[in-house]
């Protein structure tokens, strides 16, 4: 009797957990305290269910999904142990971000496992509710973004540490929202309108961050998404949608963004004579970061890395003031930052995460994960994405929600248990 009762309540319990995960993601950038509490609570539930699955041995292991969970666990464990080993560093904030982010990666591995192996319990009405919550969440982001900009009249951060950080978090959330809307809307014409609207709102927020990397990469990500997911519609609709998207993007661009985009060529061309610019500083930081790297398994202390990098900038980069000031925070490149601090183990853990996400997306037909991965990789070329603990939580939530979401109603009834 008790077993039957548990089986009756399990679908309801799972759908509640799924809804809470969606709420956590939707509110992550303007109510972080709630999102963090929900994330941890769901993670502990995931651990309990993982232990139950292992004891009962009732799971037919899906290898791509298992590798993804292992990669999340490995990158988390690597960062957590590195942070604990170098806990005496004077850069306490860096250590705290990596240890907390590592813990969240580890918990994320159990979360992804829990949601994937019970995805057959996900109800269609829950998916529709989730889509509605994400729409409200993205609209709230637009409201809070413009509200912040109207007060400070400079690049928005939405409670994060920088405008660059919030730019890629915005893209993660909007792509997840787009995946849910495409799942619940079957009409091609309405789906195209939704695509244009999501792109427009996403770009409008990115304009307020004035992040040049985000403004250059994001349209390309959406373009790839459009070509793949709307490849069966007529060329007339394709051209009309692309033209509408281009017109909306151009119409929304403020003068300050045009100025920042125009300055790219100027800063690159003047690097030999004046390297103390935003882009010039990144060139200097990348070179100093590479020359400060120790190719060991365990990496090095942030203090040692920063000292070596600053000495290189002094001697080889004409003492670039902008680079000298900012190199102590991070190296503006995910792979280089990880290699320079966590060594070869850290680098391999990031590459494993990239590969595992791509394999899972391909083999299990969770193609929307490709766009999350594409965002992670492209933004990681010019910024350090995975250093922030908030980023790790949002990334894990996006992976588990998009990974759990089936591409069709029929597929939603498939299961591995």
UniProtKB/TrEMBL annotation:
All residue ranges annotated as the O-antigen ligase-related domain in the record: 203-350
Membrane topology note: Multi-pass membrane protein
Transmembrane segment boundaries: 12-31, 37-52, 64-82, 94-117, 129-146, 166-182, 189-208, 214-232, 239-258, 339-362, 369-386, 392-408
Domain of life where this protein originates: Bacteria
Keyword Ligase appears in the UniProt entry: yes
GO cellular component: membrane
Signal sequence residues: none
Keywords: Ligase, Membrane, Transmembrane, Transmembrane helix
Example of a GO MF term: ligase activity
Membrane as UniProt keyword: yes
UniProt subcellular location: Membrane
Protein name: O-antigen ligase family protein
Annotated organism of origin: Dryocola boscaweniae
């Amino acid at each position: 009797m008790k077993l039957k009762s548990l089986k009756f309540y399990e679908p309801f319990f799972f759908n509640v957990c799924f809804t809470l995960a969606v709420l956590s993601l939707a509110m992550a950038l303007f109510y972080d305290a709630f999102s963090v509490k929900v994330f941890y609570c769901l993670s502990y539930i995931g651990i309990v269910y993982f232990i139950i699955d292992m004891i009962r041995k009732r799971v037919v292991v899906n290898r791509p999904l298992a590798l993804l969970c292992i990669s999340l666990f490995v990158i988390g464990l690597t960062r957590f142990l590195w942070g604990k080993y170098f806990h005496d560093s004077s850069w306490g904030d860096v250590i705290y971000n990596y240890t907390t982010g590592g813990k969240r990666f580890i918990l994320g591995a159990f979360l992804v496992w829990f949601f994937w192996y019970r995805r057959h319990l996900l109800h269609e009405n829950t998916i529709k509710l989730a889509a509605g919550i994400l729409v409200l969440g993205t609209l709230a982001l637009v409201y809070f973004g413009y509200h912040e900009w109207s007060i400070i009249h400079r690049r928005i951060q939405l409670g994060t540490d920088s405008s660059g950080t919030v730019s890629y978090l915005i893209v993660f959330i909007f792509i997840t929202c787009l995946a849910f809307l495409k799942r619940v809307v079957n009409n091609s014409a309405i789906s195209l309108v939704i695509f244009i609207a999501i792109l427009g709102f996403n770009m409008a927020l990115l304009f307020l961050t004035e992040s040049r990397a985000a403004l250059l990469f994001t349209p390309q990500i959406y373009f790839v998404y459009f070509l793949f997911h709307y490849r069966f519609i007529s060329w007339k609709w394709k051209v009309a949608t692309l033209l509408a998207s281009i017109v909306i993007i151009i119409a929304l661009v403020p003068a300050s963004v045009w100025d920042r985009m125009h300055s790219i060529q100027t800063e690159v061309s003047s690097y030999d004579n004046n390297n103390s610019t935003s882009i010039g500083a990144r060139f200097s930081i990348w070179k100093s970061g590479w020359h400060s790297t120790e190719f060991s398994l365990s990496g090095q202390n942030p203090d040692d890395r920063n000292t070596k990098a600053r000495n290189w900038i002094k001697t080889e980069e004409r003492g670039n003031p902008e680079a000298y000031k900012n190199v102590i925070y991070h190296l503006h490149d995910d792979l280089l930052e990880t290699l320079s601090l966590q060594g070869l183990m850290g680098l391999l853990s990031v590459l494993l995460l990239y590969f595992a996400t791509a394999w899972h997306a391909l083999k299990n037909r969770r193609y929307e994960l490709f766009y999350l991965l594409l965002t992670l990789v492209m933004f990681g070329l010019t910024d350090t994405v995975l250093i922030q603990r908030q980023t790790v939580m949002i990334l894990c939530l996006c992976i588990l929600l998009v990974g759990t979401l089936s591409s069709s109603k029929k597929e939603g009834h498939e299961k591995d248990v």
